[in-house]
Amino acid sequence: MKIWAGYGSEHSMNLVMIGRFKEMEKAIEAKSIIDAIKDTVEQAPRLVEDLKEPHAKRYSPEILAVLQTHNLFLVAPEELEQFAYDISVELKGQEIVVTTDESEVSAFLKVLID
Question: Alpha helices, DSSP H only, in 1-114?
């Protein structure tokens, strides 16, 4: 995986992250997982539930169902908001290209690596 970063004049990252896969099926699968999480985040009223203990959070039922369906548990509850950012995710052959002005992309990186 290669990561390029360029900085714009408005404090934006102009970041492009490219995940290159050996098999086309894996690239398609990663893109579908990102799309599923992104769609759920856009539709779900709550991403996480705050528990009584400080800093304790757990996934909302909607998000948990998507993560269980795709057997993906690397993304922390605090990272889910990254899927609500203005981010472009494209499938180009055996590559997934993530383009964003945000600096927080750890959730996408975890999906691509997993």
Answer: 24-43, 61-69, 106-113
Is residue 33 within 8 A of residue 75, CB to CB? The reply is no
The per-type count for the chain, helices as H runs and strands as E runs, is 3, 6
Helix (H, G, I), strand (E, B) or coil at 75: coil
Per-residue pLDDT band for 62 (boundaries 50, 70, 90) equals: confident
Q: What SS3 state is found at 96?
A: strand
Cα distances (Å, whole numbers) of residue 47 to 31, 98, 101: 20, 22, 22
Closest alpha carbon to 44 in 60, 26, 55: 60
pTM for this prediction: 0.80
- pLDDT tens per residue, range 31-48: 999 999 999 888 876 666
CA distances from 103 to 13, 43, 65, 66, 106 (A): 6, 23, 27, 25, 9
Which pLDDT score is estimated for 45?
Answer: 62
